Each structure stands twice: as structure tokens, then as C-alpha cells.
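**Protein of interest**
===
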Amino acid sequence: MPFIRAARARIREDLDAAMLRDPAAETRADVAVNSPGLHAIWAYRGLHRLWQRPGGRPAARALSTLVRSVTGVEIHPGAQIGRRFFIDHGMGVVIGATAVVGDDVMLYHGVTLGGRSLARGTKRHPTVGDRVTIGAGARVLGNIEIGDDVQIGANSVVVKPIPAGAVATGIPATVRFPARRDEDPYDALFAEPALFI
């Protein structure tokens, strides 16, 4: 029974995170039924547990392919993803096998957390800190670190580490820091239009 209670609490936590980050969400039931990003996250959580079991990798990988065909979101079951993770819209998101994603991270559609190396048995994908937002179509590539509280603009290409608290936009991404340490992320969207685009 403790496992069931923990699973229910995690589902509620994911639903609350989605409600907080999606202004179009009307109710928890609405999000639970209509969010392919959330469905992909829930499937990933189960498949990640299967991936960690002896002999579970082939089944986890096959089932993750099925989830991708249903949700449009590809999360490798070997990736490590934190709590209250949310993918808005979902379609086209790719998260690689050695990616590590912190808590309270939000991705928009079309984001890739991908590799730049073909070497086997090494970490090839990014490590994303806590409270990071990555805009639609952004590509974060390679074994790089993205610090806590970073915002990455839509369609940006990030191939170098980004320090905590920075805003990264463009191709290749350039880094700036908010004018004020207490700059509200919503206000930053207006200061940095490339976060939208």
C-alpha cells in the first residue's frame, strides 16, 4: 500500500504542476485526460523503473516507442527526470538516454535534449538544473550543464554550458543575465522577445 499512496501523491503533484504552468488547463481532470505531455511523463516514470530492473531494458525500450507513437513525445527510459516536470503541448519533444533533468522543469513542444557524440557508454546528453524553462523548438545538445533557474528561448541552439540564472537565446545561443536578480520570468518574456519566438 505505501507504493500506491506514493504513486497517487506523485500523480497529484504532476497534475498540480501542470495546472500551475498551463493557463488553458481548467481542472485536474481536464489535464489528466487531455495532456499528451503529462501522459508521456507518467509512462516514462513507469518505464524508467522497468529500465532499472535486470532484463527490463528491451521491454522498456519497446514500450517507450509505443508511447512515442501515441503522445508524440520521445523520452528514453534511461533518462533521469525530477519531480513536477511538465511538457506543454508535447509534440516533438525528444529526451535522450543520458539526459538528466532537475525538479520543476518545463519544456515546450519541439524541444530536444540530444547528444552530439556517437560514443557508446558515455554521457552524451545535457544535465538540466532545477526550475529551468526551455522554449518551443529549442535544441540543447551534448554533455553540457544548464544551471538552475535558466530560461532558454524558443528555437535556440545551446551547445555550451549555461550558468545558473541566465537567459539564453539565439543560434548559437548567447547568454545574458536579468537586469535585476528578482526579475520575474513573465516580465523577462517582454524584455527578451526571443523567449517567445
